[in-house]
Amino acid sequence: MTRKHFRASAVVALSAVAAVTLAACGGTTATNDDPANFVSGGTFTIALNEDPGSLSPLTGVSLVQRALVPYAYDSLVALSKDGEAKPWLAESWKATPTSITYTLKDGVTCADGSTFTAGTAANNVKYQANAKNGTFWHGSTITADMTATSSGNTLTITSKSNNPFLLTSTGTIEMVCQAGLDKPDSLKNATNGTGLFKLTSVKGGSEYTYTKRTDYKWGPDDVTSDTKGLPDKVVGKVVTSESTSANLLLSGDLNAVTIAGPDRDRVEAAGKKSQGVPNPLGEMLFNERPNRPTADLRVRQALTLSLDRAAVGELVTNGHYDEMKSLVVQSPQTCVEGGPKWTLPPADAAKAGQLLDAAGYPKGTGGMRAKDGKPLVIRFLYDAGTPSHAAAAEEVQAQWKKIGVDTKLVAEDPNGWSTDLYQTYDWDTGFIQLAPGTPVVLSLFFLGATSEKGGYNFMNVQNEKYNGIARQAMTAADPETACGLWQSAEKELIDRVDVYPLAQTDSPIFFSGATAEVLWGIRPTSIRMLG
């Protein structure tokens, strides 16, 4: 999943720190989780760093949107941080390499009072499998070669080809109730799922209020509406300033917020506990359309070879620099163990200059480079709302100037991301991040159709070696073989500089007056208010 903006129509894809919506893996201990301190009722308030817009679980793609989806929608299984599947809407399942049969729990109902059936679950899969519907999960977890049937309380999903991750893919899509499937547009500003909470108030650009249902009995780990410590309401409050969010957390007006910038240290000093969230804050993607200088591999190589990775990494992570070990960063971090197969070459400004010469960009007057009289100017995007991005972008600009490359820095807001990445395509590179939890989801952005054709490949990457290995991985005989292939495929992206994993950090979600389990985001059924 990307950081901020995927496609223009949905204002999605990729930069900065999104609200409380990133993957957790490691990090510090969460707030006091002793059940003796749990107090039922009250309101759990989370910070959203931008307005989510459409709330549809079928098409919403930004991290802020996806963070809100689980409050109203459940999946068939619940994954733990280590990838273990637990019963949720399904009480059990049996899988083969090409099919999986779920037995659904009895008594599951929708927010509109209707019964959630295996037939409705099958209709969800069919809807997601239809490419014409353009859903979030199509092509990654639900593919066009999948079919779904139901009988009584059983759901059977069949794949025409081997699928080594059939349980984790089909089991984790959020299920929509039948009325929502019948009228998908109704889900943009209303909810209709089996989740613990139901959307009850929308104040666009300000607040989104969810109210706890009183009839919920099927949560993971036996959570029900009566479980001690659950809040009566959840409010997503749009707060675009990280400093303001920190102040509201410290004053008790917010219960959870992601803070990755300078305010992180003062919140930690105040004793607020957190759960770590892997955040590829310094990851760089490239526009490879034919009219851009970054379409040339030699230019991409030169730009990355000229960077002092550690120096830029320290700035972009605000002093919390970690090297990236995989392009998969969200839990359950599928196919990360034992990797990576790629290595990043050391900085080499001399070689960078030679590559630019070979690409037809010799140095001219003042030491700056041009081709056929046209200056080499790189349009570099970064997130205006991420405090550490500006300083790091300026460092990149300074380092590229040393090799004769001019850099135009562009601080983006949500509308700017949408315009540049998905409408005008007027960009070359920048701090633009993807944050998938599986290599299959990652493949959407490199293997799939370009955004001009309705896909997620907004960079116009055409990496045939990656494509071939990825296709093999998707139909591998077993997970171990699949993971080996996926790691080889990832190496092809790095070697061709389709993506540059410059730096990541452990962005914490801080809590005040409450605790919760953080996986890819906050799990709503795990929220507990503290006395």
Automatic annotation (TrEMBL):
This is ABC-type dipeptide transport system, periplasmic component. Keywords: Signal. It holds the Pfam family SBP_bac_5. Gene3D superfamilies: Dipeptide-binding Protein, Domain 3, Periplasmic binding protein-like II. It comes from the Bacteria. The keyword Signal applies. One of its GO terms (biological process) is peptide transport. Residues 85-439 form the Solute-binding protein family domain. One of its GO terms (cellular component) is ATP-binding cassette (ABC) transporter complex. InterPro entries: Peptide/Ni-bd, SBP_5, SBP_5_dom. The keyword Lipoprotein does not apply. Residues 1-23 form the signal peptide. One of its GO terms (molecular function) is peptide transmembrane transporter activity. It comes from Cryptosporangium arvum DSM 44712.
